[in-house]
Amino acid sequence: MFSRPSLPSTTAGDVADDAYLLDVREDDEWQAGHAPGAVHVPMMLIPHRIDDIPADRDVVVVCRVGGRSAQVVAFLQQNGRERAINLEGGMQSWAAAGKPMVSGDGGVPRVI
């Protein structure tokens, strides 16, 4: 059997306020609610925008529950962004931890 190497990950409670948070969800998910200061690059655009992602600092990657972000972390690490870290549980865990959120649609921030 082959084992997949584990990816670096962190919990919402351990993310520093000044962390570079890369949100890879779709536009409607982002508009519904996201972390203040997060950078939005939908997952499918990551290969085209990789030069916009820092290589010299930790980059915490987030999606809704952690699956897409884990794929992005693996891709980033394979492409020289060795400090990419997956946010366990995604925005669902972010919201559950009581971390701040804002919406882009004027509504109450929520995770969809």
Automatic annotation (TrEMBL):
UniProt-listed InterPro entries: GlpE_sulfurtransferase (IPR050229), Rhodanese-like_dom (IPR001763), Rhodanese-like_dom_sf (IPR036873)
Domain of life: Bacteria
Entry-linked Gene3D superfamilies: Rhodanese-like domain
PROSITE patterns registered for this protein in UniProt: RHODANESE_3
Pfam family membership, one: Rhodanese
Record domain Rhodanese: where: 15-103
Name of the protein in question: Rhodanese-like domain-containing protein
